[in-house]
Amino acid sequence: MRNRTKKAAMLAGVALPAMMWAGALTHQAQAAESVTQEGNAYLALMNEMGGNPADFNIDDGKKLWKEKRGPKNATMEQCNLGLGPGVLKGAYAQLPRYFADTGKVQDLESRLITCMETLQGFTEQQAEHDAFAKESGNATPLVNMAMYVAHESDGMKIDIPQNTPEEKLAYENGKKLFFYRGGPFSFSCATCHSEKGKRIKISALPDLVDSGPNGARVSYATWPAYPNSQGVARTLEWRMLACFRQQRFPMPKMTSNAVIDLITYMGVNSNGATLHTPSFKR
């Protein structure tokens, strides 16, 4: 009898801390879910209210588009973004895509740089100079034009092509990069973005592997955006470079194949989603 009592006490001594630990985990999970819901509600409210500060960037980009600039004193109005010279409506919804004149798959920024070179006479270095403003700084002409062009596809369905071998290769390379682990902490894009229920601070981390309405589409379809924490309009190129930095990877060059391939991977996974840009983010 005494041995059974002792054994029961020992089991109770193990079971009670285990129950407390399990209860603590449940409480933490509930608290995390509550914070995520509050964060989502905050962002939804800000997007519903309207008056996004990035509206000023769109206006500035529209003026720059029609302004004669560069050594050739020309506008950007004949820029071919994939649907023909000067066609903006729906162009961003189909980028990145392959361009025969450059022999490359290009995203929005890289294609704008090509147009600034060929139409206006800027060098590549001049076109992308200080492309990403400091926090709370003023967006550059390249970003302002990107905001304007992207907004011309607002409300349209994402339809990024996979017709050429180059486009298919960009997608496959982007997928490999997404899951590639490296750096001092063996991180990958998938570390944060391949499971549901993860978050950073109040922001839910989208599952970019999931091509459903609550996965990649949630994130991709809302860029370019105005992140309140940055105090300046940002594009997907910036977001990709920021992710590399957060993984402690070497920073890739702007408009590099690595960045464009990752954007292609996420974009194709988002096909069919409706663009809402610019959006307001944390």
Q: How is this structure best described in words?
A:
- With 282 residues, the chain is mainly alpha-helical.
- The protein folds into 2 domains: 49 residues; 229 residues, Cytochrome c-like domain (Cytochrome Bc1 Complex, Chain D, domain 2, Orthogonal Bundle), CATH 1.10.760.10.
- 49% of the residues lie in helices and 6% in strands.
- It contains 10 helices and 6 strands.
- Helix 2 crosses helix 5, helix 3 packs across helix 5 and helix 6 crosses helix 10.
- The termini are far apart.
Summarize the structure.
This protein has 282 residues and is mainly alpha-helical. The chain has ten helices and six strands.
List the helices and strands and how they pair.
Blueprint: H1 2-49, H2 54-66, E1 97-99, E2 104-106, H3 108-120, H4 124-127, H5 141-151, H6 165-179, H7 189-193, E3 199-200, E4 203-204, H8 216-220, E5 225-227, H9 236-246, H10 257-269, E6 279-281
Parallel strand pairs: 5-6
Antiparallel strand pairs: 1-2, 3-4
Helix pairs in contact: 2-5, 3-5, 6-10, 9-10
Q: What would the CATH topology of the largest domain be?
A: Cytochrome Bc1 Complex, Chain D, domain 2
Number of helices: 10
Give me the Rg, rounded.
23 Å
Summarize the biggest pleated sheet: 2 strands, antiparallel
Return the structural class: mainly alpha
- CATH class assignment of the largest domain: Mainly Alpha
Number of strands: 6
